[in-house]
Amino acid sequence: MLSKTARQKLGFIRHPSWNKKNSLQSLEKSTYQFQALSNDPQFITHTRYWLPGWYMLELAIEHDQPSAVAELFFDTGDGFNAGQSLQLPLPQAKVLKRVCYLPFGLRALRLDPISAEGRFSITHCKLVWLKPSFASSRIMQRLSKVHRDYKEQELPAISSALAREAKQQGTSWRAVALQAYESTFEHSVPGISYEWWLEQQAERRQEQLQTLQRQQSEWTCQPVISILLPVYNTPPTLLAECIHSVTAQVYSNWQLCIADDASTSPETRKALQQLCAGDERIKLVRRENNGHISAASNSALAVATGDYVALLDHDDLLSPDALLKVAAAINQHPDALLLYSDEDKVDEQGKRYDPHFKPGWNPDLLLSQNYISHLGVYQRQRMISIGGFREGLEGSQDHDLVLRFTDGFTDGLSAEHIVHIPEVLYHWRAVAGSTALGSNEKSYAHQAGLEAVQQYVSKQHPGASVSSTAGDYYRVVWPLPSPAPLVSLLVPTRDGVDILAPCVNAILEKTDYRHFELIILDNQSSCPRTLEYMQQVSERDERVRVLRWDHPFNYSAINNFGASQAKGSIIGLINNDVEPINAGWLSEMVSQACRPEIGCVGAKLYYPNGSLQHAGVILGIGGVAGHSHKYFNGNAPGYFSRLQLVQNLSAVTAACLLVRKDIFEQVGGLNEEHLKVAFNDVDFCLKVREAGYRNLFTPFAELYHHESVSRGAEDNLEKQARFQAEIAYMRKTWGPLLDNDPAYNPNLTLAYEDFSLRCSSACFS
Known about the structure:
This protein is an alpha+beta fold. It folds into three domains: 4-183, Galactose-binding domain-like (Jelly Rolls, Sandwich), CATH 2.60.120.260; 217-460, Spore Coat Polysaccharide Biosynthesis Protein SpsA, Chain A; 487-754, Spore Coat Polysaccharide Biosynthesis Protein SpsA, Chain A. The protein is 31% helix and 25% strand. It is globular and about 85 Å long.
């Protein structure tokens, strides 16, 4: 490698001279250099005389945020876009280093230093030229350390494997190596410590507790809550802590129903005798024969007399305010039949970690995993009416219970009867051998869950089938109607044959669902190549039609026009810059869209580099909405595996969205008056949800998305004014809903798209 002095003389060490571009204000008399005025601050530097090649990016940014992510964009002539960028989660108090490649034809770099309003300083930023051999060595060393496919392999073996993959893909070694290298940098904000977060919430929670205690005398209902506690050979110390977490409750109107499932441990039996003495609220049932957890839970249920029953495992813990919060929720929602809370884990040293902040009622997620779990509180009479716990499904008896308990929409049960309490009220004990540590060595538990879900969905549709998926969760495959419905795929475009042709060709060639029409909505194209392609493809494939829309660009109006001309019973909104990955993408989406209760169906979209672009929309992020898990590694499981599971979401992107035509017409289509370009899909999905349908995301329909290639950036005053007007319309129309997404959780951030913890206590008001 050249000496530092030589490289400086040749211009191989670059200290970019950044020019303020967007949403930035210089600060005086401050410890920071700049103030970001929005969540999209930008610096730009031009690179006319920069040499292409390998570089080491070194970057340090001090900021006043709990965590931050920078992003570096490359302009090679087509403007700045996410397809040519680096995500840079910023480490605390040290310099970030990343190998990167500056491509030929580079015109400019753009640095987005943080993705939130706040103050910051760029304390170190340079690009150091690297020899190709040095750069490739650094890349392969990282792959050897952390990449799942190359971990612990020798560097020559990694290089050969990359070369083989490049040959198969018909691309360069460099492109394959960079893609693998970038995939090792998971996009996640350098985590806010859960312990730190708990400390910040302690004062708020204490104030909330005092307020509830003052209000308790005014409640119209003081429900008795019976806690079911099946026990078998529990270590006395853990058993004592578990029972003490009940007797220490600040809400006193409870009953503890313990069923000893014929414990063979004298210590356990003795501890139970001592711990149950002296409190008439504790009922102890001693079973003569070991019947396992379902039978023991039913024995506890048999002596319960409360209005509601709560489920507690024999070594877990309730928070001191758990039952008070439950009773408060019952008074606020007197028709509640099922209540559940958030939960975390606690290790053998008493340290709390791994909090699960859950969504509201989410029936399709429940088919994929038992996200309700702990703390679950059920109306006792309804639990008795469905027969309590079913024996033979041990290990997944709670999942089976909640499926049967909520299987009541035909007898009047609705989402209003199911209440989520967004507070951690339950601590799942993580000790050796516990399922909290992922050590569920008994495969029968997963098999029992599979059986429970299969029995449930078979009642909904006899042709539905259930299979195991990643992480020992479940996938329901819903049958397609016979005959298969015609799907009308609407693809708006203007010129841009280089992006339109790959999209249309891929859909025609890679889609195993054949009964569709593809309608290209031509919005004033003038490019001869584009016009020629549209004519040729429509002549070549009878499924393709080209319709002219000779008006100024209005995404909503274009698609409304297309829908009016569609022959299919299902409408597909498809951007002209998407390409299917798996052949079954449309079959999966159609099977979901045909379910009577389902409205909009969205797909899993990737950037060309394999990182996540879209896995559903989360309301409230950035003020209106953001994409779930944006920029995550495409193979990442996501927050509690949500990237791998079918689930209900408030909205999905119109880049790839299916909906029945009658629903589209029922809600009036897209809003072409107020939302000509942005947020029309979010608005549409919210109208569909308001009409009584559940919107849904499926990870089993996968496509690449070259986001906003055709539409371009909001880069002039007119576009920016229009965008701000669209934001104002969304806030005015949907403000309360945008701030309380039932598919999300108020404890999670609205500053980032990564499900990290929300820092401000203001959100709990």
